[in-house]
Amino acid sequence: MARALVLVLVAVLAACDRFPADPDGTTERVRGGELRVGAMHAPPFVVLTADGPTGAEAAIAAALADELEAGITWVEGGPDALLAALEDRALDLVIGGVTADTPWSEQVALTRPYLRADDAPDGKDHVLALPPGENRWLMTVERFLAESVEPAAPELAEAGL
Amino acid sequence: MRIRTPFIWPPEKQALRQKAIRLEWITIAVMGSATILLFFTAGTSQAMRTAFFDDLMGLVPPIAFLLAVRFERRRPNRDFPFGYYRGVSIAHFVSALTLFALGAFLVVESASSLLRGERPSLGTLTIFGLDVWAGWVMIAALVYSTIPPVILGRLKTPIAAALHDKVLVADAALQKADWMTGIAAIAGIVGIGFGLWWFDAAAAGLIALDILYDGVKHLSRAARDLADEAPRTVEDDHRDPVVTKVRNAALALPWVEGAAVNFRGEGHLLSGVIYVAPKPRTAHLVDRAEEVREAAKAVDWRVHDPDVAFVPLDALPSGARSAGGAAKD
To answer: Which domains, from first to last, does chain B contain?
Structure first.
């Protein structure tokens, strides 16, 4: 038993660059491809305009797409439709003032807060919603948030996002 | 009312008991800390939550054991003229019920999360400024929670057998369940890491079936025990040979023509009635009864305060006569 466990761990470590993996390969597909973003109206985080979504989280999504050299397909809608689509993995990301205490936390994956409750105007942890179980994708987005978004988030919030 | 004489543990068993008590306190301390650790790292992994509940439930038998020991020490009194020895049987029942409930709960949980196709999401955690995959942190927590039950379970098993302590046996079974769910959870998380979202729930489900099986086994034993089943051995659940030995000890007395034994388990102890048919014109029956009791107690340390009833020979089953030789109990 112990020996088998060690073998498994060695195999795991050897495969570290692809570990954890996405069951559906979201990261691979988005990188250099297309990022499907669901945007719901939630000013100041996402403001839906005639020219497409704007606001702090729309900017985050655009920067993420840039980083991954992907194009963005915007899908605008309400929370129920967008999060249900996310649960079915028809979207790669949903933005629009999602907080860590959302009732959808069991059905979809939530990133770590990019904006902490202490800094947020509504006193809640603000997160992005991702398809469930795509763990490499979750890690990729969280790394991006940690490097590019989290450090600047408090000043951003002070400036009204 | 005649209040029963208290049971005095033989010194070497008493020493083992002290060891068992120490082990149970260690179990509570170590498993308690592991439970707290798992609670804070569990996240959305099914097998991980399973391991958390398992560790939590694992605290029940040690607590039940320590309570039973505490009660067992009390002397028989006017309210409890038979003493508190049955407390051990109750603790066994409670532990068995815990094991059973845990197994049943886990089977349902893992089956439903498999059927609903729930995909566990594990992101990153920041530890000492480093962003690491939450799966690694979980595995570390699981390894910590898996090692102690392996060791503690191994230390308890021989003591359980020597003391005929069913609570310790059930406890050891739960500890086995504990480390097995730990291993399954580790495998599940590694599976998740490889992109096999179902692996976690499937691993948890297999282990849950094993726990359920142990639970049913112990629940049945504990319930039968409380319903005064004829004593059975702790190790393999067979008829306890002590009962036959007591009958043979009674039959070996020169004035005894027939004997039969109705014993039940009272926690660690065996007690009940020894039916004796004396040969015709046997005198001093009060002294004779004491002889039977002494002979019975000499058979095994667990025989405590049996009652002796004098009956006519034809009130005993035919196999109970001394001349019969191949008597059955």
So the answer is: 11-226 (1.20.1510.10), 241-320 (3.30.70.1350)
